[in-house]
Amino acid sequence: MKRASFKDLIIFEDEEYLLINKPPYISTLEDRDATKTNILEMAREIYPEIKVCHRLDKETSGVLALAKTPEAYRHLSIQFEDRNVTKQYHAVVDGVHEFDGVDVYLPIYASSDGIVKIDRQKGKIAETIFNTIEVFKKHTLVACYPITGRMHQIRIHLTCLKAPITCDGQYGGRPLYLSSLKKNFNLKHDTEEMPLIQRVALHARSLEFKNSEEKTIFAEAPYPKDFEVLVKQLKKYA
To answer: Average pLDDT in the 107-132 region?
Structure first.
């Protein structure tokens, strides 16, 4: 797969901050496979002193904020810590759900194997609010507003609502095939049908915070191709 140009990812830039639309399958920071590129490495080829202000999972696409100066980094870090940053994610989930300000407040414990679970004794406070955007035949497009920023928070909280994210096998989500949506679907001979999306169907849609002059910065990330195709097919066969 051709490596994305970092400049092509930028959706907002000023003297303090740079916001990008992170593609799926690229880590925010260096991961276990040090041979593969990551967002911070790509950014520092252009801005040597830049810092990533938060993380998105490798499979998750969407808005990611980077700070150009130490002061800007500290300013946004405090807003994250004080929960003054508004984050909106879009997720396609299994099943039909009518969420209207559903507030999930369940503590999360991250185990050493990289999987999180709800644990009222050892877990850290975690809160997410959910609203239904659109209902399809057997799936739902959901807006997710994480108040805290725990590992896999949206994924595990949706599973608790019996609405696991599509293609999120780690937390109970099932793959989605076109054959399950389209009547009289015919697969070409000697070919294997692939899921409509081959990653967790989660996209960081928008981010809002204040710069050092207390002016609001807002950025919205368009869907990447795989997520856009998924939603279009769900609409088409709803």
So the answer is: 94
